[in-house]
Structures are given as structure tokens and as C-alpha cells.
Amino acid sequence: MIVRQFLTFSAIGVAGFAVDTATLYTALQLGAGLYTGRLASYLVAATTTWALNRRYTFSDRRTHRPAREWARFLAANSLGGVVNYGTYAALVASLPLVAAHPWLGVAAGSLAGLAANFTLSRRLVFTGSG
């Protein structure tokens, strides 16, 4: 069961990556910088992945209080989010290739935060209680 959950969580992470990247590029086109644009895109992607994981990965463990669960998802995944954003920011700041093509940093950050986000989501967010 945990392997299936991890694979589903990872597949949803790919969808989250697409949302994250599309939102970042939209924010950049609207005048946001590489860092503030990424904060906005991360929040949109995290909300998307929460909804999809609630529906597909942890459908048997979701709670009856979705707003509270969403807030717990954002809080619990903040560690993975820090790793994700830190990886992105370090690569954008140090590699001109990544600054020119920020999706590379988004991808690296997403992979860096994957294990932490899965573990924390499974143990602290989608508990089936509440």
C-alpha cells in the first residue's frame, strides 16, 4: 500500500511541477521576479497537489475538515517546501543556465522535497481523523 501511495504521490508531484512551472512563468510575464514569482507558484502548486492527493493518494485517510487539512498540508510540507525553495534559489543564484531557464530549478527543488513531503503528508496530514 505504501509503495502505491508513494507512486501516486510522485505522479501527482509531476502534475504539481507542471502547475508550479506554468504559474511561475505566468508570474514572470506579469512582472514578478524569480523569487517572488516562485513563492506564488509554490503556493498554487501545493494547493493543487493537496487537492489531488486528498482525492487519489490518501482518499481512505482524508479528514472531514478540508480547510483544516489544507492548512496542515501547507504547514507539514513547509520543511519540504524550504528544501524545495532553497534548492531552487541556490541554483538560480549560482547557475546562469538555471536563471535563464527557471524550470530547471523548479524540477530540482521538487525532487529535493519529495521524500519529506510524502512522509509528512502521510503521517501528519492525511490521518483519517478529524
Count of structural domains: 1
Sequence stretches where pLDDT stays below 50 over 5 or more residues: none
Helix count from the secondary structure assignment:
6
Instruction: Provide the residue-averaged pLDDT.
Output: 93
Alpha-beta classification: mainly alpha
Radius of gyration: 15 Å
Tell how many strands the DSSP assignment holds.
0
Can you write the helix and strand succession as a string?
A: HHHHHH
Largest sheet: none
| Beginning-to-end CA distance, first to last residue | 22 Å
Helix content: over 70%
Work out the strand percent. under 5%
Write down the overall geometry.
Answer: elongated
Task: Summarize the helices and strands and which ones pair or pack.
Layout: H1 2-29, H2 34-57, H3 66-76, H4 78-94, H5 96-100, H6 103-125
